[in-house]
Design goal:
- The complex is a heterodimer of chains A (520) and B (427).
- By secondary structure, chain A is α/β, with parallel strands linked by helices.
- Chain A is built from 21 helices and 15 strands.
- Chain A has helices at residues 12-22, 39-46, 62-66, 69-84, 95-100, 104-109, 129-144, 168-181, 196-200, 213-226, 239-253, 266-271, 289-302, 318-327, 338-348, 357-366, 391-403, 409-417, 473-480, 484-500, 508-518, and strands at residues 2-4, 26-31, 55-57, 88-93, 117-119, 155-159, 185-190, 207-210, 282-287, 306-312, 333-334, 352-355, 370-372, 470-471, 505-506.
- In chain A, the strands form four sheets. A five-stranded parallel β-sheet of chain A has the order 11-10-9-12-13, with helices on both faces.
- Mean pLDDT of chain A is 88; it is low at 431-463.
- In chain B, the strands form three sheets. Chain B has a six-stranded parallel β-sheet, sandwiched between helices.
- The termini of chain B are far apart.
- Chain B has helices at 34-40, 52-62, 79-83, 85-102, 115-119, 124-135, 155-164, 184-196, 230-238, 251-265, 270-295, 309-319, 334-343, 356-366, 375-383, 392-396, 401-421, and strands at residues 18-20, 44-50, 72-76, 108-113, 140-145, 175-179, 202-205, 220-224, 242-243, 299-302, 323-329, 349-352, 370-373, 388-390.
- The mean pLDDT of chain B is 93.
- The chains are: A alpha/beta (520), B alpha/beta (427).
- Chains A and B meet through β1, α2, α3, α4 and α5 of A and α2, β3, α3, α4 and α5 of B.
Chain lengths: 520, 427
């Protein structure tokens, strides 16, 4: 039993729903109690889908448990077939139905439905959403894809995009363009946009582009083995990775590598003088493994940030994330415990977070800007505009979205110079953040909502610090003159500096000695 | 003298045959109630004993409201817990010890049952008893079910309040008890009106804090503020308290009828009742009439969701001039909803439970001007050209009593006004 406050991933059947909802002509019959239908709203509200997910739930209740939940399942499956006439059906159980052991897969197979029925075994008490999506897509591919003659022209399947994916919609378009520039066309994009009959012709492609290892790596491996299709390992997020991706595709296909850089703006934007202020910004990177690996590289090599911490919530990606962290001289934070991530961020005091919507809330509470780089998704992660993460436009989007939450270069100086101006004081915050006065970060603990203050809350500012050193009044006043967005770091650095030297009281001199010590 | 609402001449819906279909029900489970209950009870913590699905539901229903550390959480059952039940009780003790050590501010802990905990027959009442002894007197531990196999959406609040009734101290004092979790501002308005009529003492269930001296006994009369409190109603009756049946306080008529039922019980002078209610009634009527301009003559179709459907249909048809096509609720408890059914004129189909596909067929055939439904259905129906009002907002927004009557009507008129405002199609 594990106490959980917020979760990064849903249960595995939600992963299966992401696959089914992304596809057409497929129906999911889910043995599940009343209430599990809440998952529909993830798709209709967060992603603003204009149709219901193709899922029929048996919605059994307590009174059915003593009677006949098995028949309830059969009726639901038959009704779903009669009403929706899908090309194929996937069947499975949610966490509760797994416990009553009705064996939906076995039952559906005996029903003699005239379309392929694909049973799913998704262990709800061991695995999570990404596993559910990966396993479901793998089972569908395994059941329907067969070796066949290759297309005459060189083609690729794009695999991994699902419903409710972080920018999957736009990444498909960007990767299609990258390939098209090299004269390679797309055979099938799956699971999102494909039907079961499309899956059946995936074998015609020359290779697979594995866009998201989280949701399609098992299928990619199977197709490599059974359909003799190599797959790409590089995920083209960021300029360097996009170039590597093109080189990899060229190597697989024998096509001459080509990249149209006319629209690529990140390199010049990053070199231009206004970006100098980005140098060495301390960032913490957290999310799903794929996006974290990509973001850490972009942060260091393309933005000039200093990555001070990184990690992922999906254990399946722990190995590569640990390896990259080691390469960066860091220890990776591999956890799905939101409170642990919060503690890590608090201890590191980064100047920026590249994280998920959950870290955005942590950042709000701690007064640290955050750009969102990964699922779990929020309605804001489905912008109306074209906003990919991958390829050339993806790199441009990364530059913009990561710079936006930061206080701009010149503005940083102006805030510092005019800190006592009645309108332009530091607590006013950055002008592009709505211009409203906001309290200093120590007081914005509740910004995420009307959460109550609880005793022992970490956000409470004490004069007696956790290090046991005391701030003298003069030093405290001097600290307040430092712009709010670096004040937390200054406070922490000074305390560390004092503690290391056995200084019990922090004076103005201690503050500036620490500043000199940490100057870079 | 205040004019009380009249019953429809053609007869109400109390004896209308109820359409009952069985199939997929597109509804929340009772765990959803935790989202508002934990805001209302400020020293309570809600610990769901369930699966990752339960945690995911709470998070999705809470939407953007991610608090640093909310007063609810999920003890997620793992493979090892499913192997043997004795272990699960020990594990639960560990989780609760850890939780209470970190949150000394918690005075009431609710162990909330879920589908998985009920299927494996994890005895939470035994656990609650044991923990109450262990953590007395600083923490009281109760249990209730929010599972989807036992409860639908707002029934979670009912189960929670019902679990609190047996442990309330006994009192013989003559008192009025208002039952149902309302936003503070609304609750204060209601109490204000009743106190102005000289009624008191007035107590509220749930009380904001465990230490608030709330008792119950034969001197207690109670009024429900929400129509979904069937089990709480039964539990209070068992403690000797007496229910004051009334229409629910939505809109001018509902509020007046509800207040009148209490005023009659407390022998309030009619002139005083008129004096206290006249001004807010007039304000409510004026505010409703603005929204009613948009709603008048329009048709409405209710999917089952919160059990508020029948009182709301009564309000929309009688005070806003709408025509109800179908009014469905997850459950219809005539002992509670009877006065509203009496006032709702015959005509609409009254249905209980649902087969969502068949009900969608009916809605699409009827093409109502406004469909009141859950979040899973709203955008798909909008895409079909049907204006919708998502029902969950009705539970999260202050909509009770006179001062909110205009806001309530506005929730329904806004989607229609919006559809009129937007000029998005090519000419």
């Amino acid at each position: 039993m594990k106490l959980t406050v917020w979760t990064y991933e849903g249960p595995p059947h939600v992963g299966a729903m992401r696959v089914a909802t992304g596809m057409t002509g497929l129906h999911y019959v889910l043995h599940a109690p009343q209430g599990d239908t809440y998952a529909d709203l993830l798709f209709t509200m967060i992603e603003r889908r204009n149709h219901r997910p193709p899922v029929t739930y048996t919605t059994f209740q307590a009174r059915d448990l003593g009677a006949d939940t098995a028949n309830l399942f059969k009726t639901a499956a038959q009704d779903a077939y009669d009403r929706f006439k899908p090309e194929a059906i996937i069947v499975g159980a949610s966490c509760t139905a797994e416990l009553i052991q009705d064996d939906p897969g076995g039952m559906a197979e005996t029903m003699g439905l005239p379309v392929p029925v694909i049973p799913l075994e998704l262990p709800s008490y061991q695995r999570k959403e990404n596993f559910g999506a990966d396993e479901t897509f793998f089972q569908i591919v395994k059941a329907l894809a067969r070796p066949m003659e290759r297309t005459k022209q060189i083609t690729a399947n794009l695999i991994g995009p699902t419903a409710l994916g972080f920018r999957h919609r736009d990444d498909i378009q960007e990767v299609t363009a990258l390939l098209s520039d090299m004269g390679i066309s797309v055979n099938v994009v799956a699971p999102m946009t494909s039907s079961p009959s499309d899956i059946a012709r995936m074998g015609a492609a020359h290779f697979n582009v594995l866009m998201y290892p989280e949701t399609a790596e098992t299928a990619a491996r199977w197709m490599e083995r059974e359909l003799d299709q190599p797959y790409t390992r590089v995920v083209p997020i960021g300029v360097g990775a996009t170039r590597d991706f093109i080189a990899e595709v060229a190597k697989i296909t024998g096509v001459v590598p080509y990249m149209d850089e006319s629209r690529l703006r990140l390199p010049w934007y990053s070199k231009s003088v206004d970006s100098t202020y980005l140098t060495g910004k301390r960032v913490f990177v957290f999310g799903d493994g794929t996006h974290v690996l990509a973001a850490a590289r972009v942060a260091r090599d393309e933005m000039g940030f200093e990555v001070v911490g990184m990690g992922c919530y999906n254990r399946e990606m722990a190995r590569p994330v640990r390896a990259m962290a080691k390469d960066f001289g860091l220890t990776a934070t591999i956890t799905d415990d939101y409170l642990e991530v919060e503690r890590t961020i608090e201890a590191l005091q980064p100047e920026m977070i590249l994280g998920t919507q959950m870290e955005r809330h942590i950042g709000k509470r701690l007064g640290i800007p955050c750009a969102v780089i990964s699922a779990p998704v929020h309605v804001q992660d489905f912008p109306a505009r074209y906003s990919p993460q991958m390829g050339i436009e993806g790199a441009n989007v990364l530059f913009d979205t990561w710079v936006h939450p930061l206080v701009m270069g010149l503005e940083e100086h102006l805030l510092h110079m005019f800190r006592d101006d009645f309108e332009f004081h530091d607590a006013a915050g950055a002008s592009h953040h709505g211009g409203h006065t906001k309290p200093a970060p120590q007081e914005v603990a509740d910004a995420g909502g009307p959460a109550p203050q609880t005793p022992g809350s970490i956000s409470e500012e004490k004069k007696n610090t956790s290090f046991g050193v005391i701030w003298l009044d003069d030093a405290e006043r001097e600290l307040k003159k430092i712009p709010f967005f670096v004040r937390g770091k200054a406070r922490r650095n000074t305390e560390t500096f004092a503690t290391e030297r056995g200084v019990a009281e922090i004076s103005v001199d201690t503050l500036y000695e620490a500043k000199a010590h940490y100057a870079r | 003298m205040t004019e009380l609402p009249r019953l429809p001449a053609s007869g109400g819906c109390r004896d209308t045959p109820i359409l009952k279909q069985r199939g997929q029900r597109e509804v929340f489970c009772g765990l959803t109630g935790i989202i508002w209950l934990h805001r209302k009870m400020q020293d309570a913590f809600f610990l769901v004993i369930g699966s990752r699905t339960c945690a995911h539901l709470l998070q999705s229903a809470a939407g953007v409201m991610i608090f640093a550390e909310p007063r609810f959480g999920t003890a997620i059952l793992e493979e090892t817990d499913l192997a043997g039940l004795a272990d699960a009780q020990d594990e639960l003790d560990k989780v609760v010890d850890e939780l209470l050590a970190r949150r000394p501010d918690i005075k009431q802990l609710f162990l909330v049952g879920s589908c998985p905990s009920e299927v494996i027959k994890l005895d939470l009442s035994k656990a609650a008893e044991r923990m109450t002894q262990r953590h007395a007197p600083s923490v009281r531990v109760l249990n209730f079910s929010g599972s989807g196999i036992e409860t639908t959406f707002t029934q979670g609040e009912d189960a929670c309040l019902a679990s609190m009734v047996p442990v309330l101290p006994k009192t013989d004092e003559r008192q009025l008890l208002l039952v149902g979790a309302l936003p503070d501002v609304v609750e204060e308005q209601a109490i204000g009106l009743l106190e102005a009529m000289g009624i008191g003492p007035i107590k509220v269930l749930p009380a904001p804090r465990a230490s608030d001296d709330l008792g119950v006994g034969t001197g207690t009369v109670y009024a429900l503020t929400q129509p979904f409190l069937g089990d709480t109603h039964d539990a209070l009756t068992r403690r000797g308290a007496r229910h004051l049946p009334a229409p629910f306080p939505f809109g001018d008529e509902g509020t007046t009828g509800w207040l009148a039922a209490i005023a009659t019980e407390f022998n309030v002078d009619p002139a005083l009742f008129e004096k206290v209610t006249a001004a807010p009634r007039a304000r409510a009527r004026k505010a409703i009439s603005q929204a009613a301009e948009t709603l008048n003559g329009k048709s409405v179709f209710f999917f089952p969701d919160s059990q508020l459907e029948i009182p709301l249909a009564r309000f929309l048809t009688r005070e806003c001039g709408m025509d109800a096509i179908e009014v469905s609720a997850p459950f219809i408890h005539k002992g509670i909803i009877g006065p509203d059914l009496d006032m709702l004129a015959e005509g609409p189909t009254i249905s209980e439970g649902q087969d969502v596909d068949l009900q969608l067929d009916r809605a699409r055939a009827a093409r109502p001007d406004l469909t009141v439904c859950g979040l899973g259905l709203a955008n798909p129906l909008e895409a079909d050209g049907l204006a919708t009002k998502w029902a969950i907002e009705l539970v999260f927004t202050p909509v009770h009593f006179y001062e909110q009557a205009g806001d309530l009507a506005g929730l329904f008129s806004r989607p229609l006004r919006r559809a009129d405002l937007l000029k998005l199609e090519a000419p």
